[in-house]
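To whoever is on call:

I kicked off a structure prediction for a single chain this morning and the downstream step that reads the tokens threw a length-mismatch warning. I double-checked the sequence; it's 464 residues and nothing unusual in it as far as I can see. Pasting both halves so you can look.
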Amino acid sequence: MAQTLAAFALFALLCHNVSAQSTYAPYSRFGLGHLQSGASVAQMGMGQMGAAWTDRSHLNTVNPAAAAFLTRTTFSGGFHIRSERISEGDSTAQGELGGLTQIAFALKRAGGKSAFSFGLQPRSQSGYDVSQVLTDDVADEYEIRYSGSGGLTQAHAGYARRWESMAWRKFADDQGVVTDSVRIIMSGTGFGARFEQVFGGMVKARTIDIANPIFVDTRVQTNDVHRNAGFTMGLVREQLVSASFDKDRKLVKSALLRLGAVARLGRGHTTERSTRWASWQTLSTGPLEVDSVHATEETFSMRLPLELMLGIEWEENARSGARWRLGGEWRQARWSTVDGDLLDPGVSWVDDQGISLGMSLTPRGLDDARNMWQRSTYNVGYRSQSGYLLINQGGIASTTWSAGWSIPMLGSRSGSSLNTAVMWNTTSTGGEVGGLTEDGLGFMVGFSLHPFFKNQWLVPRRYD
């Protein structure tokens, strides 16, 4: 019991850090901020795939059905460090930041078919500070600055269940007489459902700083408080395509095909917005608020769209102990059906779609590997996304290349591992701001623990 309480204490300690600002993206100013995939560090190297990606030792935090394929209770968490470079024409700006990626648990008894999962992860992020200098016949030169921070956090709790089909593999001698048989798992079907509560807020400010001291500067600050609740459904089908046995009836080679689907059901979203206009005067000691001109409060309600993901993955286990995995994923969300009253002028919702591709290699199994390099798993991935927001008639588009490395922890026979990933991404949009480009380089470190207290969670025992 003390070990479980310690885990929950760690969970509570880290919760308040999940929504911390972790982007400088100028596009996070609009809509609900920069939306996140919700993938764990182990999935990042595989193009952030989540629909059909399952692993016996790593928790899939995108598809709630994947938790049923874990071998035992699993903790997943991590953090990231990121450098972002914003460029427009000859002007550039660069900054570094970091934060937690997510915190997630899956409670599952070894050998069981059901799993309970819960956790926290960023749903969106907002962080920007951009400005432009203009001239006017009356006020001469003035600067308009846009700044903001915040983001949305998703708390979730779900249940997953797996069903298996068995078959007997018969072995015959040279005369065709059956001498032995082995029962093997031919397929597994997992279904999961997850309740999600999204909450958080974003603070936005627009300041007009006039160089001529005769004029009073103006600042408009907007505080948005967001919330919604709904369900995500997931399905995974795993099919044994081929299997080979040695003379001792031991499985030495196999091939698996996985199909997966995730449906994030549409849900009502509420935004409470308070806006305040104020006059400022720049003095030698700094800016000073002169007068609060006007304040308003509004409530926006909209229906978020259904988000659908479909994926496929092929796994090949070679006789030498090597394991290859190759997969792809397609995603779509019809944001064009959402009411646009919340958005700024010149911004509108547009349908969002994207694909992911990923490949991984484990040179040797844990029992056959001679060193750390053979025990490790190496990943490469690609992800593209376009849509969600249309800014000045240009849709946001991003591409991400990734590479990952998963290292089993020495002394652990349960599959606990240290996971790392490196990501390179580029985001831009067409239209009038087509020259504004965001380039990012991120490094992520995460842990998959089963569990981290002597691997003894949910294991029955007798005490004298």
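Update from on-call: the warning came from a stale cache, not from the record. Cleared it. Sanity check on the structure: The longest helix spans residues 2-15.
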